[in-house]
Write a structure and sequence with these properties.
21% of the residues lie in helices and 43% in strands. It has 4 helices and 31 strands. Strands 1, 3, 4, 5, 8, 9, 11 and 14 form an 8-stranded mixed β-sheet that branches. Strand 25 and strand 26 form a beta hairpin. The longest helix is centred in the last third of the chain and has 38 residues. The structure holds 2-acetamido-2-deoxy-beta-D-glucopyranose (NAG) (4 copies). The site of one 2-acetamido-2-deoxy-beta-D-glucopyranose has 2 residues, from loops. InterPro entries: Ig-like_dom, Ig-like_dom_sf, Ig-like_fold, Ig_sub, Ig_sub2, Ig_V-set. This is Ig-like domain-containing protein. GO terms for molecular function: MHC class II protein binding; protein tyrosine kinase binding.
């Protein structure tokens, strides 16, 4: 009695699962495009130990078309026209598994498939609904600043499913961006959930434009006297000879080394700091599009000033110190055989260091932001600069002030002298009679002296004559 009941229950189960060669329920399979789809066809009741024939077919319209077939005599068949890269591994047959493997599945492969396994006495039929999920990006070519959308297709599309969007393994709440930037490049995808199955399909997004720097927030640090290269690297699609460099707020043309895709300064000078912009034209979906990138150059320099006789202050000047959080002072000393050793002398948030005039050698200022080292600038303190207070700007000013003072004194003295001469002349002019008197007296005296001389000579001559 009990035995018969159980047998009846088994029969019911068999009917539900679609066995016994009769009615069968469709099984759902969801796969991502490009992957290998394994269409299940398992004989769970192990009835078809030695199948005489296995036949996989696909529904096209109202009829079924063979995909893979193995006949009673062991011959295998595949369609000649539009064959799928499908196979049914024979070594699984012993385990009652007649799965069909389809490689590199595409959206067009979605649809209804049927597996028929024929035994000696019975026949098993299974129907599988294969749904293929595909993620794609439109338009095909995305240029920086333009609009992009990720699409998710399911073929055949079921009535009820849930869809979520992903960017680089993280869920996002939108599938499009109005103004795309290089940061949006990467893997975009969707996750489809349907009847307890979940499948993720991805598409990679390349953004045409300038790949380095990624955005306008780049800051470059360079010490005065060093060289620096400002990068402006384009993705493919750049139209040749369209790259233009400009320094914002400057009318002075940039040197030849700025003609190429990366700008190069051979020797950074005080005054080179500022914002530089490169731009170029790329081929987009709707013709030519201009893309541009701005970057900031910050210049670093160490200067010194003397305080008193023995102390020297070194100052680490950064043209735009907003991001700097720490300064580090190092001293490089040279040992025998030209060995160099660097030692950290001070690390603080101050850009100054007070040293002694005897601390001759190379001084290096390293500067950091909260993420790490940004750059360095160096200063050579020698005997002369220690005595003179270096080539600091304050030292220069002192020299200038002294020079000007000296010049003023000189001019003052000349003016004073001229004034005195002028005064004397004026005083004489006030008494013209006196002048003529003086003059008369002087000429009379001269006359008298001359005539006295003459008479003396005449006398002498007379005397000579008389004596002879
Ligand atoms: C769709 O699926 C959800 C669960 O995934 C279910 O709650 C809902 O009732 C379904 N809707 C229809 C119309 O089948
Ligand atoms: C780009 O410039 C180079 C020289 O700088 C020249 O040889 C080349 O013909 C130019 N190409 C175009 C497309 O104008
Ligand atoms: C450095 O100099 C010493 C002698 O002063 C010598 O013995 C040694 O080999 C030198 N080392 C190097 C690396 O040249
Ligand atoms: C200073 O910076 C230059 C270039 O970035 C680097 O080559 C050099 O090693 C740095 N020097 C120190 C002492 O950090």
């Amino acid at each position: 009695m009990k035995e018969r009941k159980r047998h009846a229950m088994d029969l019911v189960l068999l009917t539900i699962l679609g066995f016994g060669g009769g009615l069968c329920r469709e099984q759902e399979l969801l796969v991502a495009e490009g992957s290998v789809a394994v269409l299940p066809c398992v004989d769970v009741f192990a009835e078809h130990t030695h199948p005489t024939a296995v036949h996989w077919s696909r529904r096209i319209g109202d009829s079924f078309k063979t995909v893979w077939r193995r006949n009673k005599n062991g011959l295998e068949f595949r369609p000649i026209k539009d064959p799928l890269s499908a196979r049914c591994p024979l070594d699984n047959f012993g385990k009652f598994i007649y799965n069909l493997h389809i490689e590199a599945i595409s959206l067009a492969d979605g649809g209804e498939y049927e597996c028929q396994v024929e035994g000696k006495i019975s026949k098993m039929v299974k129907v599988i609904m294969l749904r293929v999920v595909r993620a794609s990006i439109s338009p095909d070519v995305v240029v920086e600043g333009s609009r992009m959308e990720v699409n998710c297709q399911i073929s055949p599309r079921p009535k009820n499913f849930t869809l979520k969007w992903k960017k680089d393994k993280e869920f996002v709440n939108k599938n499009g961006i109005d103004s795309i930037s290089q940061r949006d490049a990467g893997n975009w995808g969707c996750v489809v959930s349907y009847k307890n199955q979940e499948v993720e399909a991805t598409a990679s997004l390349q953004v045409r434009g300038i790949s380095t720097p990624q955005d306008d927030s780049s800051v470059f640090y360079a010490a005065v006297g060093s060289s620096i290269s400002l990068p402006c690297i384009f993705t493919d699609g750049l139209i040749p000879n369209t790259t233009i460099w400009k320094k914002i707020g400057s009318h002075v043309p940039l040197p030849e080394s700025f003609k190429s895709s990366s700008g190069f300064i051979h020797r950074v000078e005080d005054g080179d700091e500022g914002t530089y912009r490169c731009s170029g034209v790329v081929n987009g979906m709707n013709g030519m599009q201009t893309v541009q990138r701005s970057m900031k150059l910050v210049v670093a320099q160490v200067s010194s000033s003397s305080r008193g006789i023995t102390a020297v202050t070194l100052f680490c000047y950064i043209s735009s110190p907003g991001l700097i959080t720490a300064y580090e002072w190092l001293r490089e000393t040279r040992g025998p055989n030209d060995t160099r050793t660097l030692s950290i002398i001070q690390k603080s948030s101050s850009s100054r260091i007070q040293i002694s005039e005897r601390d001759i050698g190379e001084w290096i200022c390293r500067f950091y932001d909260h993420e790490g080292l940004l750059g360095n600038a160096s200063y050579h303190l020698d005997m002369m600069s220690a005595l003179k207070g270096g080539k600091s700007s304050s030292g220069n000013k002192a020299a200038l002030v002294m020079g000007l003072g000296f010049l003023f004194l000189l001019v003052f003295l000349i003016l004073l002298q001229m004034y005195r001469i002028h005064r004397r002349r004026k005083m004489i002019h006030q008494y013209p009679a006196m002048e003529s008197i003086i003059h008369q007296v002087a000429t009379e005296r001269e006359h008298r002296e001359r005539s006295r001389e003459k008479t003396a000579k005449a006398c002498a001559a007379e005397n000579q004559f008389e004596c002879v």
